[in-house]
């Protein structure tokens, strides 16, 4: 009986350890013409999750301050990434801001603002839109709040990287514990 209880506790605790890999922009990637404020809706970014930026040679990724994000200022980046595939692990809670430093791209909407929560907190993560921001052209207007509704179902291209591995480990460990007792 103790083995069954231990197995159930282990099985229930295992999902909390999963990190999610988010592909920014889903299948479109990091490019002009995307609305990243809509893409972020309904997603919860947690410490340990990763952002994967996939982009072509004319783009790159700069992590910037909120002020530089609001003003599309590329001169003071906190970190800069290039090379087509950039994987950023979210290592601490708080707001993070990313822009494409290629001239004119940030102004065309190639920018991303997220809020990272501590791993024990599962609250929604939509940073407030920057002051003075406008809805990109081609995006239908939303309700009076100006914030689009979250998409129904799932987190887009988010994938739970070790889901099968952890579940398999839990099942094997549970079976071993059941046999031993």
TrEMBL record:
Name of the featured protein: Plastocyanin-like protein
Keyword DNA repair in annotation: no
Keywords: Copper, Glycoprotein, Membrane, Metal-binding, Signal, Transmembrane, Transmembrane helix
Domain Phytocyanin: 20-118
Ranges that cross the membrane: 160-180
PROSITE patterns, sorted: PHYTOCYANIN
One MF term in the entry's GO annotations: metal ion binding
Assigned GO CC terms: plasma membrane
Gene3D superfamilies hit by this protein: Cupredoxins - blue copper proteins (2.60.40.420)
Range of residues in the leader sequence: 1-19
Entry superkingdom: Eukaryota
InterPro entries, per database record: Cupredoxin, Phytocyanin-like, Phytocyanin_dom
Biased composition (Low complexity): 131-147
Region (Disordered): 120-157
């Amino acid at each position: 009986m103790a083995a069954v209880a231990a197995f159930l506790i282990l099985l229930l605790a295992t999902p909390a350890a999963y990190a999610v890999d988010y592909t920014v922009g889903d299948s479109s990637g990091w490019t002009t013409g995307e609305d990243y404020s809509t893409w972020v809706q309904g997603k919860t970014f947690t410490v340990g999750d990763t952002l994967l930026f996939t982009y072509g040679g004319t783009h790159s990724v700069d992590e910037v301050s909120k002020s530089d994000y609001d003003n599309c200022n590329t001169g003071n980046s906190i970190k800069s990434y290039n090379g087509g595939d950039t994987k950023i692990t979210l290592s601490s809670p708080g707001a993070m801001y990313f822009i494409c430093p290629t001239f004119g791209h940030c102004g065309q909407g190639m920018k991303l603002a997220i809020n990272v929560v501590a791993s024990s907190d599962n609250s929604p993560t939509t940073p407030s839109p920057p002051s003075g921001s406008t809805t990109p052209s081609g995006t239908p207007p939303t309700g009076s709040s100006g914030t689009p509704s979250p998409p129904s179902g799932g987190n887009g291209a988010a994938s739970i990287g070790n889901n099968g591995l952890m579940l398999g480990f839990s099942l094997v460990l549970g079976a071993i514990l059941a046999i031993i007792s």
